[in-house]
Specification:
The protein is an alpha+beta fold. 17% of the residues lie in helices and 36% in strands. The protein contains 4 helices and 16 strands. The protein has a 6-stranded antiparallel beta barrel with strand order 1-2-8-5-4-9. It has a 4-stranded antiparallel beta sheet with strand order 11-16-15-14, sandwiched between helices. Strands 10-13-12 form a 3-stranded antiparallel beta sheet, with helices on one face. The chain is elongated. The two termini are 33 Å apart.
Length: 242
């Protein structure tokens, strides 16, 4: 999970029951969190493997359930039913301890842009990720502004337009939080303590020109896309129909 400073911390889970599974690549365990907190999308390995993935690969935490409710994360000393994917599940035994792997590449890249990754966000207010991508990359998308790559100050202008448009659209909360989609994880909530010039920071820190972000209430999407000769900024307001 992520500590209060926005950095990855070690997560440790202890298995107290292993449930039957008809899957060859995963199953469900009863676990207790020994430290660090644990959340959906994290990858674990047996502590006895000394942090290595081992011959069967790591275990991805796909779902957390407690008292019939799905959770995105749970805290140290809490217990939960944890649904894992990965062939290493067949090796798990009661009493085993799992240790999280280092932050995934996408998390490291976001942190390299000055963003703090707060964890997965499964709020029902957020749009379906596929719906958000359609609003970003669909054939009928019209940019709020297009910045020509031929401009000598193209990057600076992109930053200026982004800051202005996202402020008007109220993309971020007052403390700088919004959501971004990440591979296999879905929506992840991030915090931007810098608050300005995100497009250029994404280019230098993450190596990405295209990216999209959604307000934590799922109301508005703001995105940057690279077109043939321009960079577009898209602002899309979600309604019941779109």
């Amino acid at each position: 999970m992520i500590d209060k400073g926005g950095h990855a911390s070690l997560s440790r889970l202890q298995i107290y029951s292993v449930e039957e599974s008809d899957r060859a690549d995963g199953g469900t365990c009863g676990v207790r969190c020994l430290g660090g907190g644990a959340g959906v999308g994290q990858v674990f390995a047996l502590e006895s493997d000394a942090g290595a993935e081992g011959p069967d690969g790591g275990l991805t935490l796909e779902r957390v359930e407690r008292y019939g409710r799905d959770l995105t994360f749970f805290d140290p000393l809490d217990w939960a039913h944890a649904h894992f994917s990965g062939r290493a599940f067949a090796r798990l035994r009661e009493g085993d301890v799992l240790v999280s792997h280092p932050a995934p590449t996408w998390q490291q890249r976001l942190e390299g842009c000055g963003l703090q990754v707060l964890g997965p966000d499964t709020s029902p207010a957020l749009p379906d990720v596929r719906k958000a991508h359609q609003a970003f990359a669909g054939y009928e998308v019209v940019p709020a502004v297009a910045v020509s790559d031929a401009r000598p100050d193209a990057v600076e202008e992109l930053d200026r337009q982004w800051d202005s448009l996202t402020a008007s659209a109220r993309l971020m909360t007052q403390n700088g939080e919004f959501c971004m989609p990440m591979p296999k994880t879905g929506w992840v909530r991030v915090k931007d303590p810098v608050g300005v010039n995100l497009p250029s920071r994404m280019m230098t820190g993450a190596g990405k020109t295209d990216f999209l972000a959604v307000s934590v209430d799922g109301r508005v999407l703001c995105a940057v896309s690279q077109e043939e000769y321009d960079k577009w900024i898209i602002v899309h307001h979600f309604t019941e129909e779109s």
